[in-house]
């Protein structure tokens, strides 16, 4: 559970590019926020700053009221899934999903039940003993999501997670992501340049253009007129 506040957040890269300019946004606990906009508008940079993968040049990032600008990614309790992802090829699906639990020394029984719960939500419980090479692309992406959220992070960040999948699979995955959000209730920030995805998944949509927020609203507010 987490409220995420971006307060005047700006990102300037060393070459002078201002990727994000004076971004103000309050993401409520359990909200599913979509960042949408053309390529290069600053979506990924925004996610990376929330995750701690990029420094913030100006402004403040608050998670549950605490300023976390200088906190390392590991200390932010945030999970991230990208369009390409690396599963451990020598591990089964169960071991892949359970890996973060093993690192955190979560006890065996608790880990086993958590893995089952996540696999069930993702519809991959029948593949738990397979290795990634024996899974389809959509199944692998679900395993990557399972591994990312298995420790119930405060927030779940996704950067175009469906863009490598075909149209049919994307629709299935959209349904699955909605279910994941409803059952786990994590605060989610989801990046896409696909308007359909934005409309079907988001509680609210943030439309960005050249590093600046143009509009923020529910799908109805943004697209129904
Ligand atoms: P999006 O995710 O919306 O496609 P990005 O956040 O990746 O946009 O990029 C926003 C802007 O910042 C773009 O103009 C991009 O070229 C620039 N940019 C991204 N990363 C760097 C970097 N490491 N150095 C300089 N400019 C960058
Ligand atoms: P999806 O419908 O998720 O896209 P595919 O059409 O790629 O899945 O695969 C259909 C079925 O075949 C799935 O149940 C998948 O687990 C299985 N499968 C795909 N590739 C392999 C493989 N290399 N070895 C074993 N089973 C596989």
UniProtKB/TrEMBL annotation:
GO process annotations (BP): carbohydrate transport
Entry superkingdom: Bacteria
Gene Ontology MF term list: ABC-type transporter activity; ATP binding; ATP hydrolysis activity
Keyword vocabulary terms for this entry: ATP-binding, Cell membrane, Membrane, Nucleotide-binding, Translocase, Transport
GO cellular component: ATP-binding cassette (ABC) transporter complex, substrate-binding subunit-containing
Keyword match Transferase: no
Residues of the ABC transporter domain: 4-225
Keyword Translocase: yes
The protein, known as: sn-glycerol-3-phosphate ABC transporter ATP-binding protein UgpC
Gene designation: ugpC
Included range, full protein: 1 to 225 of 393
């Amino acid at each position: 559970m987490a409220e995420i506040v971006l307060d005047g957040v700006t990102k300037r890269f060393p070459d002078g590019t201002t990727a994000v300019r004076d971004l103000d946004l309050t993401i409520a606990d359990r909200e599913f926020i979509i960042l949408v906009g053309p390529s290069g508008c600053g979506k990924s940079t925004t996610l990376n700053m929330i995750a701690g993968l990029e420094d913030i040049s100006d402004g403040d990032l608050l998670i549950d009221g605490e300023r976390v600008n200088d906190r390392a990614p590991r200390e932010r309790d945030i999970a991230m899934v990208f369009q390409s992802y690396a599963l451990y090829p020598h591990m089964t699906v169960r071991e892949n999903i359970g890996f973060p639990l093993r690192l955190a020394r979560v006890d065996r029984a608790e880990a086993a039940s958590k893995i089952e719960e996540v696999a069930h939500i993702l519809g991959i419980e029948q593949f738990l003993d397979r290795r990634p090479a024996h899974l389809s692309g959509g199944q692998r992406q679900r395993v990557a999501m399972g591994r990312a959220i298995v420790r119930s992070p405060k927030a779940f960040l996704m950067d175009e997670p469906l863009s490598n999948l075909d149209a049919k699979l994307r629709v299935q995955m959209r349904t699955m992501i909605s279910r994941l959000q409803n059952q786990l209730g994590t605060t989610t920030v989801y990046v896409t340049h696909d308007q359909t995805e934005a409309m079907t998944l988001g509680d609210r949509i943030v439309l960005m253009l050249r590093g600046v927020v143009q509009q923020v609203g529910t799908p109805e507010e943004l697209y129904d007129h």
